[in-house]
Design brief:
- By secondary structure, the chain is an alpha+beta fold.
- The protein folds into two domains: about 1-235, no CATH class; about 240-364, CBS-domain, CATH 3.10.580.10.
- The protein is about 55% helix and about 15% strand.
- The protein has eleven helices and ten strands.
- A five-stranded mixed beta sheet has the order 1-2-3-4-5, with helices on one face. Strands 8-9-10 form a three-stranded mixed beta sheet. A two-stranded antiparallel sheet has the order 6-7.
- Strand 9 (about 335-340) and strand 10 form a beta hairpin.
- The longest helix is centred in the N-terminal third of the chain and has 31 residues, at about 40-70.
- The radius of gyration is 25 Å and the shape is globular.
- The termini are far apart.
């Protein structure tokens, strides 16, 4: 198990990394405690923990429903993370077409409906239905498959609550965008989501801390969606030439790593385009430089550590380049070309500076 920040990679399925957040095991501790308090038996605790494990298997399938549907529209998924309050599929982006966004959003709950339908068939054919037992743990049906059936119905309904970042919030935004445009639709959907978050928080104060946690998650998710949409509006259809870095250093493939060290210490540039004459042949980023110093020392060559360069023309859409930079850790720098010649660079820090300047000009 390999840790990255607060998450540990637990597998890779369908080409998508699956992570578990460090707080996720706390859910099992909490569930075990609740079932122990309600049943006072080891069997009750095992029932509860097995149930939550199967429930989160359904959550994983729910997230893969989103991810694999998005893949059909050419949108990748960076990873899926398991959190105590559910799963999160980190799509590279949401579809711009509202119809596609609706399909991607609905496919998660659709997976839960499909699981519930399969369990319904099994329970009906086997005669496995049990009458509700209000004394059962967590007020769930005593029959295990029946418990999973009810849980999947709940997951499908709960995720359709019209609040970001729930699936229902994305469907609401997509429907609204047909009439009022993506930015206004996102802002309205975000306000509705934050209203729902306040309601959950108030109810949670009556004795359910999980609802408070969900309320915080929804509030932050709604604010994040609104902010991301505003950034998209500010950058969309603006050429990268307006924001690119034009004063920078370059490296050559045959130069030693000591040259990269000298340039790094002499200024603020951390990632460098690699040129063979006037032709861009790669990029030497800070991580690769440090790894090269560890493996080869100061006399190692730039050609040994450089990676393929990502390039764009000066009239490229600034927002599209932002999406490219957000898609993964591999792309930290984009080389901007004019008629094949390097004329500028763009990175996340530079885009952030551009947004701050634009905001200051609007407030002037």
């Amino acid at each position: 198990m390999r840790w990255t920040g607060w998450s540990a990679k637990i597998g890779r399925f369908a080409g998508i990394d699956l992570y578990m957040h460090a707080t996720f095991p706390l859910l099992f501790i909490w569930v075990g405690f609740i079932y122990w308090m309600q049943t006072g038996t080891v069997e009750g605790v095992l029932f509860g923990m097995t149930f939550i494990a199967v429930l989160f298997l359904c959550v994983i399938l729910h997230e893969y429903g989103h991810a694999l549907t998005a893949r059909r529209y050419g949108i990748g998924t960076r990873y899926i993370t398991l959190l105590p309050i559910g799963g999160l599929a980190a799509l590279e982006r949401m579809p711009k077409d509202p119809r596609q966004e609706i399909v991607v959003a609905l496919m998660g709950p659709a997976v839960n409906v499909a699981i519930a339908f399969g369990l319904l068939v099994v329970l009906t054919l086997s005669g496995g239905w049990s009458p509700p037992d209000m004394d059962a743990p967590m007020l769930m049906p005593a029959n295990f498959l029946q418990s999973v059936f009810v849980a999947n119905i709940f997951l499908a309904v709960f995720n359709m609550i019209p609040a970001f970042p729930m699936d229902g919030g994305r469907v609401l935004r997509a429907v609204l965008s047909f009439r009022m445009g993506r930015l206004r639709a996102t802002q309205l959907a975000a306000r509705i989501g934050q209203t729902v978050a306040i309601f959950f928080g108030l109810v949670g104060l009556l004795g359910n801390p999980l609802l408070i946690l969900i309320a915080v998650f929804i509030w932050i998710g709604a604010a994040s969606e609104a902010g991301a949409s505003e950034v998209e509006t500010q950058l969309h259809r603006k050429p990268v030439a307006r924001a690119m870095i034009t004063e920078f250093h370059t490296l050559a493939p045959w130069e030693p790593l000591s040259r990269a060290v000298d340039l790094t210490l002499a200024g603020t540039q951390k990632d460098f385009p690699v040129l063979d004459g006037r032709r861009v042949v790669g990029v030497a980023n800070q991580t690769a430089i440090l790894r090269g110093l560890r493996d080869h020392g100061l006399h190692g060559r730039i050609s040994e550590i450089m990676s393929a360069a990502t390039t764009a023309e000066t009239d490229a859409d600034l927002f599209e380049l932002l999406e490219a930079l957000q898609q993964g850790e591999d792309v930290r720098l984009i080389c901007i070309l004019r008629r094949g010649e390097l004329v500028g660079l763009i990175d996340m820090e530079n885009i952030s500076e551009f947004l701050r300047i634009e905001a200051a000009l609007r407030d002037h």
